[in-house]
């Protein structure tokens, strides 16, 4: 299993918004796109989906942009995944026993992933990133 670009880009954008949480100025799409190497148009579409899911809010105008709709510690990763990927496929009554077994294993995998993703928040991601940045700093005299 791989992390989709959609989820990865959304999390990168949300982390950028989490960095600006509590500030009066919104974070502009162009800033996030440039810092995270995300195509502008794709980022616009992702942020629109996140806005409809009430994870971010937007401000229009020349100084417009995006804010987190809630505190970074109140948004868990599963909420992001769920709003972008939706629900897992449901078994079809016409499925063969082989397909049913495969789908059952896939559902168990998704449930385990859901538990893990619910345990992490945007704040956790930002803290882990900051710890990595501090660890990677080299001091020169």
Report a brief summary of the structure.
With 141 residues, this protein is mostly helical.
Largest sheet: 2 strands, antiparallel
Write out the strand line-up for the largest beta sheet, numbering strands in chain order: 1-2
Shape: globular
Structural class by secondary-structure content: mainly alpha
Helix/strand order: HHHEEHHH
Terminal CA distance reads 45 Å
Strand fraction equals: 5-15%
SS elements, strand count: 2
Spans of at least 5 consecutive residues whose pLDDT stays below 50 are none
- Global mean pLDDT: 89
What does this structure look like?
It contains six helices and two strands; from the N terminus they run H-H-H-E-E-H-H-H. The N and C termini lie far apart (45 Å). The mean pLDDT is 89. A two-stranded antiparallel sheet has the order 1-2. The protein is 58% helix and 6% strand. The longest helix is centred in the last third of the chain and has 22 residues.
Question: What is this structure's SSE topology?
Answer:
Blueprint: H1 5-19, H2 29-36, H3 40-52, E1 56-59, E2 65-68, H4 77-85, H5 97-118, H6 122-136
Antiparallel strand pairs: 1-2
Helix pairs in contact: 1-3, 1-4, 1-6, 4-5
List keywords for this structure.
141 residues; mainly alpha; two-stranded antiparallel sheet; 6 helices; 2 strands; globular
């Amino acid at each position: 299993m791989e992390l989709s670009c959609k989820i990865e880009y959304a999390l990168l954008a949300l982390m950028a918004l989490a960095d600006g949480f509590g500030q009066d100025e919104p974070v502009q799409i162009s800033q996030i796109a440039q810092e995270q190497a995300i195509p502008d148009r794709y980022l616009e579409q992702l942020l629109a989906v996140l806005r409809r899911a009430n994870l971010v809010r937007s401000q229009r105008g020349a100084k417009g942009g995006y804010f987190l709709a809630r505190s970074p510690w109140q948004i868990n990763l599963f909420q992001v995944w769920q709003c972008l990927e939706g629900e897992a496929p449901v078994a079809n009554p016409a499925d063969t026993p082989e397909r049913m077994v495969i789908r059952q294993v896939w559902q168990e995998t998704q449930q385990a992933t859901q538990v893990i993703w619910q345990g992490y928040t945007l704040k956790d991601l930002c803290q882990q990133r900051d710890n990595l940045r501090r660890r990677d700093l080299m001091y020169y005299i």
